[in-house]
Amino acid sequence: MLDDLISRVSLEAFAGATVFGRGEEYFTAGAVERLRVTDGKVTASVVSTQTYRVALWDDDNDLTYDCTCPHAADGNFCKHCVAVGLAWLAEHAGESKSSVKSGRKKRHDPWHAIRQYLSAQSPDTLIELLLDAAQRDDRLYQSLLLKTEQTGGTGNVAAAFRRAIDGATHIRDFIDWREVGTFAGNIDQVADSLAKLLKPDTAATLVELAEYAIERTEHAMEQVDDSNGEIGDIVYRLGELHRKACAMARPDPAKLAERLFRFETTLPFGLCSFDAVTYRDALGKEGLRRYRELAQAEWSKIKPRDRKDSYDAHRFRITRVMEQLAEANGDIDELVAIKSRDLSSGYHYLDIAEIWTKARQPDKALEWAERGLKAFPERPDNRLRDFLVVAYLKRKRNDEALQLTWVQFEEQQTLDHYKKLHDVAGKIGVWPAHRSRALALVAEAIACETKATSHRKPTPSAPNYSFRVEIALWEKDLDTAWTAANEGICNRSLLITLAGKLESSHPDNAVTLYRRVVVPIVEQTNNTAYEEAIKLIRKVGRLMKIRNQSQQFRDYVADLREQFKPKRNFIKLLDGVARASVAE
């Protein structure tokens, strides 16, 4: 039962403290709308910058959840789920299993009450109620009309569906994200009705109508902000219906191939796959042959791409069609020939090299990778270099592998490039010498940057040791990291990370670093910065208490209060820290 599964404690356990807090803010702000409980399932909408649909239900004594937001799509119990859970709790506050056992009235179920009322009405009354509702609800009207057509009540089913599709996809002005829910709901209603045509006697009609609905919807989406993906999901569903209907109805394979190829290469968004591989069974040999004929005819018009050519959507689509056909046939030479039409970047050479690697043709792979490196001396792709490093190491061409890795580090001194140098030199067994060389280069770069002047920096600056600290942290050399951090300026996040690692072994040094970053954080003057500063101040207090320096900590807090007295929101938080320290 939901009573056993949903509570503030369980919601926070599912979401974590941070996400729970955000969800509580949404609930408090009244963002939860249209809360419904039907058959043990809680559904609602949560309105923020976008509208998200949430469902919570009991699945074999486990709380199961779903939300249309990206965070939930990754499997997380999101803030929207928290907000709906809290709304459900608020609506049913005070009601519990104990109230049922004590004989108090059970929770009111509005749907049950409505069902009981309708069950007591005569057919004529129900018809009048439904007709009255249909006059005010266009979606209900369209649903009833389509049901009437499907039962053979009037006219042509296909024509009725086309009218419904036209109505659902008709757009006068641009539809932004706030209004997209209604528009999507109308199309979804038609999709629900179309799904009922997936039967042997109506599958052929469904093939035609699904194509019409997909094409109309895709073109309508050019005037819709579907950033939440609601309409895209419906189009994908229509595509699944179309594929199943084709498998059931077995339309003329050549004509089907022509329609599929047109959709695959012309629809504005290409949300459904109309490629030959997806429809292989429905197309058969005849349809596949026709599909390939159309693709090759269009492909013959495509010229090799020059690196200066701009992006061409049509070229991209027909190229992908040809690649899929070659991949389906397992023809590596054909696939490479297709990809060779576009060698406008180093990555495209790498793409071909990886194809040959997968085909267990390492020599051809190496040849293409080296060609790519030579073709782009001014704009080399580091992924191509990395590929060659691996290939050279396998062939014991160690000097070439090391040189390519050094080039990357010399071009851009980053921790990732330092790690690459470490890995390659380590495999060769020469890391100590190359580590000294790399660190000397880092020191030289720091000195050069310090001395450099410009119109924005007319005088030399303090040395920035951030990168040296970053390397030391990665190497777990805390002594060097501490020394480097105190030789000049350093990235704040690195100082906080270093302080955290020094807490157990060198608590005084950790306190020094935390205190060093607190002031610039508070000077940002925003509530988020204040909260971050308070967390660090609390850490300072904990470490100083361990060192029997509670009075010194209270003095530190008093100094901060005096320094930042005008920042009222920060002072309120700081006073809480002060009260806690006195209580201890």
Automatic annotation (TrEMBL):
GO terms for molecular function: zinc ion binding. It comes from the Bacteria. It holds the Pfam family SWIM. Keywords: Metal-binding, Zinc, Zinc-finger. Residues 52-89 form the SWIM-type domain. This is SWIM-type domain-containing protein. It comes from Noviherbaspirillum saxi.
